Amino acid sequence: MEDSEFVQSLSSSDSSHPQATVSATGSSLRVRRCYVHPDEGGDDDGEGGVGGAAARRQAVALTAGSAGEVEGCYLFRTGNGVACAGSELSCRRNLVAECARRLCSPTALLAELLGGSASNSDSATESSEDEEDTLGLCTAVSVRETSSSSGKVAVAENRFVRCDVGLHAGKDSAPGLRANVVEASAFTGVFAECGAKPNVVDNSFLAQQQQQQQVPGRKKRKSRTGLGVLLVLGSRGMLARNSFSDYDLSPVMCFASCRPLLTGNSYSGVSLDRARQQRMEARMRRSFRRELFEASGPGDARFYIVDSEECEKEIRDLVLKGSEEEKNDKK
Question: Where are the domains of the chain?
Fold first, then answer.
């Protein structure tokens, strides 16, 4: 399908299940130059306003050995942008904007993890103890259970703006992420977990959104954003020749069970807010240990943070091979 507009309905007879605007199961799908967005005037069935059920919505979904091409599309506040499970995907030259629950309905989870809230209220942040699943965050592109046998996943030359997560590489996936611009991700630009092996090469990660539209009479406010890349639960892959700009949290955070190759990345304008970094680390460790790390042993209680070229060079081999302490944890 080409040159089409799709309006997502915010109501459904069964809102507990994922709702895909365009989908393929065991078939081929080509989506080019299409615009997908929510029906902002529709009935949301009391789900909390536009996008209240955002985590259950998808613009494009590929499952069960499908082969899909998504090119030149604009996906705006669609919940999740493109979801690929056990399928082949070429996702190129798209703009995926504001796939984030925080822009649709307030979520205490983001406040808990990032030290902020939809309104940047510190009092709301400190009082938030929501235990909502972190994997319910919205993503621009989500990939899982893909390998060389199920098909290649190429995500290239896209722009992901103000999404919770730019790319989620889930269980047993090996997507290629190249020459994308990832701006102002609320949680993280790339989230790799459960043995994923993403190749993240030649991308630009920007903590702040470029070319923000100024509202007359309103002060321009610098929004709080999250990490650049987060790797957990035995993820591997490669992180090479990427640029990270203007982060006040660690651009790269890698838990100790992960073994990625870090090489040739650049870091500019990075100035860690130490208090916010410490709060984020403590809250993230607590939240993820509850949800993810209980089965992986004590190694994932530790992590590495990378915020400069010098730091990357210093810990590159340690991350790739593991420390003696981590090896002893496995004995």
Answer: 5-211+224-322
